[in-house]
Structure formats: structure tokens, C-alpha cells
């Protein structure tokens, strides 16, 4: 008996509904594990062969039941039977009958013959279906393959749609198989020609899904995503606030950064067009703030007031862009531009994670030239500086300190640094006493976090534990890693640097409040002049926001609820204006955090036949994870007693993991690997089928050169023009029309998912 569960076509009606309530099946004896693998609506084909001594010749019957009937005891699991194949013959030919049964079972597993069997009206239809199957079947000679070796099932089953269309000669593309246009050409980016027309369509598109965005979050996967991204978002927000505090002399610092991120994130998660996007702080914004503060200090202007004016102008300009459907320009941002931008942000995450780890050696220095014989003479003392700098003298003068009155030898390390003392002795470095344990322990925590996160994330495909356990461990991979590292760090007891969270909700400086006047003490004309830097800031916000949105809304993510570029930009603009008035940092879409958010919410098919690879179904689209992340971020002021146990090296490790994992799937890095790969070992990338290898390499070199140029600008003093350079990539891409044909560019610079292109290509073959 051979069972082949198949899903019936939609044209077959009146199927029996087999459930625990309406059946007499003893479910205690059913293979429930196998039952879970079978998709809803599946029906069985029962193949029965046997020998009877009173028969002179074989008797064959192929039966299609209407409706399908639950035949107890035939199938391995209680699903209705649609087809019966019965073969009875005389004694002595049992092996032949068995082979015929196997052949019929193979026929019934074929997608095309399966449809023929459902719709056949007579014997001739079945024979035609068998002929079509034999025309398409691949035969392996006995000497070419050992039948005892198991052939692993393919990861992606090729489409059989072309076989279902009659009258198509071999080598001819069937109607509907033509290559679909790539890029961003959906209704979301069509110009309406009406004032706020695109925004109105965005609202109409997203409104029907608003309540489902909350219902769809009822999943353990969302809890895992929330816990992972909360930890991942907290550190950069606080770090950004700290850097901003240093740059602005405390006018905007960590508490303002936390408050601004929480308020902006909550509003965006509730009303944004694409709630999968996570807002965060960006490097160009920090550079802009530094330049603005320096300008205000030189010309005696109020920094917060001028910043409020610039922020309000930027918000107004962004709203004008929304009103004029300017987001439709996103269609010019192709894979070439977005991959260069995304790669840069991922590399920056990796670089900054390693850089922060390296900088710990300044806070916790180690002695690289120890003399073990002199360990008894090692000591470190704080003394008065022999040649105090102007900064030190200015500090002493500001606080009325006399060097002779300070008990230098009795000061702690932090007090010595505060009073600008010097450290002397064999056990001292330039920045204080050597602390070898902390640095080495931080390195261990850092790489352990990266390794454990990667291992647990891949645990889903391991061979240990049941599927459900593996799935939960994989979903909670980063959270479990952070929890494990915190417990290990606490147990070891080495004083590693910890996450510092403000413990009081009030402005960092007492001379400012939560409301900033756009004019303040500044001259009236500064409000009008602020429109000039606001233009540059608008480009910065627009490019950062929309490129990230393009990456999140890629077709390969299979989003079903649509997107809202205009609505996204409106929410960012409104909250940017609010943050400007309140003296809070500006927040815009964060590329790596958003990609990590999407990756943590991927959906795969739960019902798949044994041995079959789960299919990617799309993303769990909802608003709750982003909402909870930013609500808890705002409440972090009251969670200081818990958050103070999280070591900073662990968070640096999470940054490295996010940057590295976000690089997966970026075609640029696949093409870079082709430089050192012989042609015979190259993967079957679809563009390699249609574009000469030298042209592929030329395209990669140009894209890589743009990436290097972006990196140089990003880390230099010219970082303020970074958005302009990202915009320039669009023009570079336009110039490539002179070096590549349109056909070549359609394969190299197209947003159509790789697997879909392959499917179209394979369907057109024959």
C-alpha cells in the first residue's frame, strides 16, 4: 500500500471535513507527528496490488471517488481518499505488480498528472497524462547511480506551470512567463497629480490592516524579536546620547536621547506606513549637530533655539515633499544604490563594534612588557602634574582648586582623573593603572556573544531536539545569548564595563526645559536663515528614510499588507518637528536595525512533507514589536537596577552579529566572491547565465568603488555631505547605461528576487 497525500484543486467541491469532532477515528492510534506535516485539505491516493490464484489474467481499476471518502485502515493517517488504484493478477508475478504500483504512486506525486487525474473524463485522458509525464521524465541509467544511495530532496522545487499550458513548443516562452519588470513600480510610488494624493492612498491602503497588525503579533516569535531588538536598540541610543552630550556640552544627552527615541518610535509604530522599520540615530545627524554647535558657539548664538528653527523648517520641507508625492522618486533607487548604502551601514556596524572593543584598552590598559621578576615592586600612584596643560589650569581656576591643597596620594583613580592628576609607577599606563583582567574578559564576552548568537540562530536546522524546541531556541537566539553572558559575567565577578542608563527623568542641564523657543535669545533673522541648513538636513532625512524603506519593502520579503512611503515620511517629519521644539535628538530609519527586525520575523511553512524543505512564506507584519521596544525603552529609566548588569562588550558583540547577519543576501558580496572562484565552481546565479563574467566583474568594481568612496566620506570631516553622495549614486547608475546594455543591467541591477528569476528561466527551458 502506497499513500500519496495531495492537495485537491479548488474546482473539486464537497470534500469531507475530517476532524476529531465529526469522525469515528481513534486518534490515540494515529501518527500525530506525521499528521502535522500534512497540509489542510490533503487527500490520499491508495494503491492496492495483489495476487489471486483463481485469476487467469490481471484485473486493473483506477477509481476516482466523488466526494472523497474516509476509508478507515487504508491510509496511514485519517485523511479522505480520492483515488484508488487496484491491480489483481494471477500468482507468480507479484514483483511486477509491485513495480506497477510504485509507478502509479510516482505518477500521482507529479503535479501535472495529479491535475489530469482530477479532471480526466475517460481512459484516453489518463493515457494522455501518462504520455506527457513520460515525455518530461528523466531516466537514470542503472550504471550511473547506485539505487541504494538516498537522493536528498531539492531545496527549491522548480515550477511546473509551463507544462500545464498546452500547445507551447519546446524553447518557447509561454504567455505569462515573460520576465517581469524589476525595480519599484508598485501603486505606492505612482504619482497621483493631486495634493497629498499619495498620502491619502497610503492611508486607504494601510487602514484595513490596522487592527490585524495587532492580532498578528500573538506569537512567541514576536516576543523573541522584541527582546532581541530592545537590547540591540538601547545601547546605540544611549551611546548616541552620550556622544551628543560631549559634542553639545550636555545640552542634549542620554536622557534626551532615550525620551526622543521612545516618543518618536511609539508614534511611528502606531501610525507609520511600514511598522517593520525601526527608527534610530545616524552618523550624519551627529556630524550635523557637531557642526551646528560649533557654529553657534563661534557666533554667540543659542544652539537649541537655532536647532529648533532648523528642525521646524526641515519638518515643513519634508511635509511639502509628502504633499507633492516626491517619494515617487524612490523608483530611481535601484539595487545598485540600495546595496551600496546597506553594505556601508552593515560594515560601519561591524567596524564600530570592533573599534569600541579596541577602545576599551584605553580605559583598561594592559602592560605588554611585564618583568615577572619585578612584580613585587609594581605600584601606581597619583601625583601632581609636572607641566599642567592650559585645560588643566583652566579647570583648577574654574573650580578654585590649588594644586598644593589636593591630597594627591590619597585620591582614587576616578578622582585623580577628575583633578587632572598624573599616574606614575611600574603598574601605570598613560590613562591609569593597568587592568589586564577586564580587557581580556571583555574580548572573551565579545566573541562568545557573536559565536553563541550565530550558533543558536542556526539551531533550527540542527538534528537535536524536536522541531518546536529548535524553532523556539532559534527565535530567542540573541536574547538567550545576552541572558547567558550576563549570568556568566555576574558569576565570574570581573568588573567589566556595564550599560549606563540615566536614573532620573529630567533634562541633563538645569538651564534648559522640555520646551525650546525657535527664536530664544537669537536675532529674528536666524529663524528665516535656518531654511538654508534645513535644505541639507531635508536631503539627509529623505535619503536615510527612503533607502531603508526600499530595502525593507523588497519583493523578496513577500509583504502582503503594502507599504506607505508618503505616510512614513510624514510621521518622521512630524516627530522631527516635535523633537526640535522639545530639544530632543532627531531619529530616522535605521538600516541594520530594520533589516534585523525583518529577519527576526520571517515565516516558514509548518506543514511540509517529511524531508521537504520549509518554504519561506513572508514576514509577520505587525506593529506590536516596534511599539513594545520603544515603550520599554522609555521605561528604561525605571529599570536601571536590572540593565546595569548588562556588559557593554556583550552589546558590542550583538552589533557585530547584526552587521554580519544583515550582509547575507546582499548580491554585491556574492559577486565579490566570484573574483577568486574558477568558473566551474561558481554557483548557479541567474545573472551568470545571461551576462559575461567580465561585465559582472566590471559592475562589481564600479559598485565597490562607490562603496569605498562613501566610506571615506562617512568617516571624514566631510560626512555632512554624505546624503548628497548617496544621491549621486543614482546618477552613477544612470551613467552605467553607456557601459552596459539594458539587457545586462536588467539582470545585474534588478530587484526581482533571485529565486523567482530562476523559476522563470527554468520554466522557459525545454
From TrEMBL:
Annotated transmembrane regions: 223-245, 310-333, 340-358, 438-456, 476-494, 524-543, 564-588, 624-646, 696-713, 719-736
Principal location: membrane
Metal-binding among keywords: no
Membrane topology: Multi-pass membrane protein
Residue span(s) of domain Band 3 cytoplasmic: 12-147
GO terms for MF: monoatomic anion transmembrane transporter activity; sodium:bicarbonate symporter activity; solute:inorganic anion antiporter activity
Family named by the database record: Belongs to the anion exchanger (TC 2.A.31) family.
Protein name, per record: Anion exchange protein
Naturally occurring in which organism (per UniProt): Pterocles gutturalis
Amino acid at each position: 500500500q502506497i499513500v500519496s497525500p495531495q492537495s485537491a484543486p479548488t474546482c473539486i467541491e464537497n470534500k469531507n471535513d475530517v476532524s476529531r469532532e465529526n469522525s469515528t477515528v481513534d486518534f490515540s492510534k494515529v501518527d500525530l507527528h506525521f499528521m502535522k506535516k500534512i497540509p489542510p485539505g490533503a487527500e490520499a491516493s491508495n494503491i492496492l496490488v495483489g495476487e489471486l490464484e483463481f485469476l487467469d489474467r490481471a484485473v486493473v481499476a483506477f477509481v476516482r471517488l466523488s466526494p472523497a471518502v474516509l476509508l478507515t485502515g487504508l491510509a496511514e493517517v485519517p485523511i479522505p481518499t480520492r483515488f484508488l488504484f487496484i491491480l489483481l493478477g494471477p500468482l507468480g508475478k507479484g514483483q511486477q505488480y509491485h513495480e506497477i504500483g510504485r509507478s502509479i504512486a510516482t505518477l500521482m506525486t507529479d503535479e501535472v498528472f495529479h491535475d489530469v487525474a482530477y479532471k480526466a473524463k475517460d481512459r484516453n485522458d489518463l493515457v494522455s497524462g501518462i504520455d506527457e509525464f513520460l515525455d518530461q521524465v528523466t531516466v537514470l541509467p542503472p550504471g550511473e547511480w547506485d539505487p541504494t544511495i538516498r537522493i536528498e530532496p531539492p531545496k527549491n522545487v522548480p515550477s511546473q506551470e509551463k507544462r500545464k499550458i498546452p500547445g507551447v513548443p519546446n524553447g518557447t516562452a509561454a504567455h505569462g512567463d515573460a520576465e517581469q519588470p524589476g525595480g519599484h513600480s508598485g501603486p505606492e510610488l505612482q504619482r497621483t497629480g493631486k495634493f497629498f494624493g499619495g498620502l491619502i492612498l497610503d492611508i486607504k491602503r494601510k487602514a484595513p490592516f490596522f487592527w490585524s497588525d495587532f492580532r498578528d503579533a500573538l506569537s512567541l516569535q514576536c516576543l523573541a524579536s522584541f527582546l532581541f531588538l530592545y537590547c540591540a536598540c538601547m545601547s546605540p541610543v544611549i551611546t548616541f546620547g552620550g556622544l551628543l552630550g560631549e559634542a553639545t556640552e550636555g545640552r542634549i544627552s542620554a536622557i534626551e536621547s532615550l525620551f526622543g527615541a521612545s516618543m518618536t518610535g511609539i508614534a511611528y509604530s502606531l501610525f507609520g506606513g511600514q511598522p517593520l522599520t525601526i527608527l534610530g540615530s545616524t552618523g550624519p545627524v551627529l556630524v550635523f549637530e557637531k557642526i551646528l554647535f560649533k557654529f553657534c558657539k563661534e557666533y554667540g548664538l543659542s544652539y537649541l533655539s537655532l536647532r529648533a528653527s532648523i528642525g521646524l523648517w526641515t519638518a515643513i520641507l519634508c511635509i511639502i515633499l509628502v504633499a507633492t508625492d516626491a517619494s515617487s522618486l524612490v523608483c530611481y533607487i535601484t539595487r545598485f544604490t540600495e546595496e551600496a548604502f546597506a553594505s556601508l551601514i552593515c560594515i560601519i556596524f561591524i567596524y564600530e563594534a570592533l573599534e569600541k572593543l579596541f577602545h576599551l584598552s584605553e580605559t583598561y590598559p594592559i602592560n605588554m612588557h611585564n618583568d615577572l621578576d619585578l612584580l613585587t615592586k609594581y605600584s601606581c600612584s597619583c601625583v601632581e602634574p609636572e607641566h599642567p596643560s592650559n585645560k588643566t589650569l583652566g579647570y583648577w581656576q574654574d573650580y578654585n582648586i590649588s594644586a598644593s591643597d589636593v591630597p594627591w596620594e590619597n585620591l582614587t583613580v576616578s578622582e585623580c582623573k577628575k583633578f587632572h592628576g598624573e599616574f606614575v609607577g611600574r603598574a601605570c599606563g598613560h590613562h591609569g593603572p593597568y587592568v589586564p583582567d577586564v580587557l581580556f574578559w571583555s574580548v572573551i564576552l565579545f566573541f562568545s556573544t557573536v559565536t553563541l548568537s550565530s550558533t543558536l540562530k542556526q539551531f533550527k536546522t540542527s538534528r537535536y531536539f524536536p522541531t518546536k524546541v529548535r524553532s523556539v531556541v532559534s527565535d530567542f537566539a540573541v536574547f538567550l545569548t545576552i541572558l547567558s553572558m550576563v549570568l556568566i559575567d555576574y558569576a565570574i565577578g570581573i568588573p567589566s564595563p556595564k550599560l549606563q542608563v540615566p536614573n532620573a527623568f529630567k533634562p541633563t542641564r538645569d538651564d534648559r526645559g522640555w520646551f525650546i523657543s525657535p527664536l530664544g535669545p537669537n536675532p529674528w533673522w536666524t529663524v528665516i536663515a535656518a531654511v538654508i541648513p534645513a535644505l541639507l538636513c531635508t536631503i539627509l532625512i529623505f535619503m536615510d528614510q527612503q533607502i531603508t524603506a526600499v530595502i525593507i519593502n523588497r519583493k523578496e520579503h513577500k509583504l502582503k499588507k503594502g507599504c506607505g512611503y508618503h505616510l512614513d515620511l510624514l510621521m518622521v517629519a512630524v516627530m522631527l518637528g516635535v523633537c526640535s521644539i522639545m530639544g530632543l535628538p532627531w531619529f530616522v530609519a535605521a538600516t541594520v536595525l530594520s533589516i534585523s527586525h525583518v529577519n527576526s520575523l520571517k515565516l516558514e511553512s509548518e506543514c511540509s512533507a517529511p524531508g521537504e524543505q520549509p518554504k519561506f512564506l513572508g514576514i509577520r507584519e505587525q506593529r506590536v514589536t516596534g511599539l513594545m521596544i520603544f515603550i520599554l525603552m522609555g521605561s528604561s529609566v525605571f529599570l536601571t537596577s536590572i540593565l546595569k548588569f548588562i556588559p557593554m562588550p556583550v552589546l558590542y558583540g550583538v552589533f557585530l552579529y547584526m552587521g554580519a547577519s544583515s550582509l547575507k543576501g546582499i548580491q554585491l558580496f556574492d559577486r565579490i566572491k566570484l573574483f577568486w572562484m574558477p568558473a566551474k565552481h561558481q554557483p548557479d546565479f541567474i545573472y551568470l547565465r545571461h551576462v559575461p563574467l567580465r561585465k559582472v566583474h566590471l559592475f562589481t568594481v564600479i559598485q565597490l568603488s562607490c562603496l569605498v568612496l562613501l566610506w571615506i566620506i562617512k568617516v571624514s570631516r566631510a560626512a555632512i555631505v554624505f546624503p548628497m553622495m548617496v544621491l549621486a549614486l543614482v546618477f552613477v547608475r544612470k551613467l552605467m547605461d553607456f557601459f552596459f546594455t539594458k539587457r545586462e543591467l536588467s539582470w545585474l541591477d534588478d530587484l526581482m528576487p533571485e529565486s523567482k528569476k530562476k523559476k522563470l528561466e527554468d520554466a522557459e527551458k525545454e
